[in-house]
From TrEMBL:
PROSITE patterns: BTB. Pathway: Protein modification; protein ubiquitination. SMART domains: BTB (SM00225). The lineage of its organism: Eukaryota, Viridiplantae, Streptophyta, Embryophyta, Tracheophyta. It comes from Chenopodium quinoa. This is BTB domain-containing protein. SUPFAM superfamilies: POZ domain. Residues 45-109 form the BTB domain. Residues 17-33 have a biased composition (Low complexity). It holds the Pfam family BTB. Residues 1-35 are annotated as: Disordered. Residues 1-13 have a biased composition (Basic and acidic residues).
Length: 261
């Protein structure tokens, strides 16, 4: 099954459960939200947020009400720069800021990973009685993505391009792997292997460390992932031996490496 225009419309129809948009339009552009808040409160934007060279003039109270991170950092400042180690793109922050004003998020397979990571990094747990951006993105992953193999593959590829944050914040890569390898038809393993071809040794170590910590009762799934990673390219066994230092897999990988050469 492939993602088509009809899939996108279906995703759009699911947005009602992911926040209620203003009645005037299906989505609220950030500037409209800022202007509406200014008019309603009589207060002009009082903080400038810089993200990757792009400036956003916003209201502190709005950001602080949705983000624990901003609550700590915006109290006594009028300018603030989101910089490493927070890796947030300007386009993603614009969507996040729009959510802060409208309490509505347009979530799709293509922006899910970036939004989920940012929601976690900015500690967007919301307030009592409202679904936070973290909760909305997690619900979308569980209710829309994880039940559709095509969407799983799309999100998996996106998560791999945003390692290590995608795994360290929400275990997105490993959860996609788990869903793909649980595919009874076997096609999931092929999709998983195709994705793993693009992962660096450092990236696979992040995923493996995460999986080792999460799956403490059994490491069979982790063994399968490592097998797939090396089978994608036998040269990795030679070039990445230094990476094979996971305590749980060390003996198996080292024993196989000479044979697989």
């Amino acid at each position: 099954m492939s993602t088509t225009a009809s899939d996108e419309r279906e995703v759009g129809e699911n947005m009602k459960s992911l926040g209620s948009p203003p009645l005037s339009s299906p989505s609220s552009p950030l500037q409209s939200g800022v202007d509406a808040w200014t008019e309603a409160t009589g207060r002009k934007p009082d903080v400038k947020i810089q993200v990757r060279g792009v400036c956003f003039h916003l209201h502190k109270d709005v950001l602080v009400s949705k983000s624990g991170y901003f609550k700590r950092h915006l109290t006594r400042v009028s300018e603030f720069t989101l910089s490493p180690p927070l890796k947030v793109a300007a386009d993603t922050f614009k969507q996040v800021a729009d959510f802060c004003y409208s309490n509505y998020a347009v979530i799709t397979p293509s922006n899910l990973v970036a939004l989920r990571i940012t929601a976690q990094l900015l500690e967007m747990d919301g307030i009592v009685g409202e679904e936070s951006l973290r909760e909305l993105t997690e619900s979308y992953f569980r209710e829309v993505v994880i039940v559709n193999r095509t969407l799983i593959c799309n999100v998996f590829r996106s998560s791999l391009s945003l390692l290590p944050e995608a795994e360290q914040t929400a275990f997105l890569s490993s959860r996609c792997i788990e869903a793909l390898l649980d595919d009874g038809e076997g096609d999931g393993a092929v999709s998983c292997a195709d994705g793993l071809k693009t992962v660096s040794p450092e990236g696979i170590k992040v995923i493996a460390d995460s999986m080792q910590g999460r799956y403490t009762a059994s490491h069979d799934l982790l063994y399968r992932v490592i097998d797939l990673y090396f089978l994608c390219d036998n040269n990795r066994i030679i070039n990445s031996v230094g990476m094979c230092k996971f305590e749980v897999t060390c003996s198996r990988l080292v024993m196989r490496a000479p044979h697989d050469k």
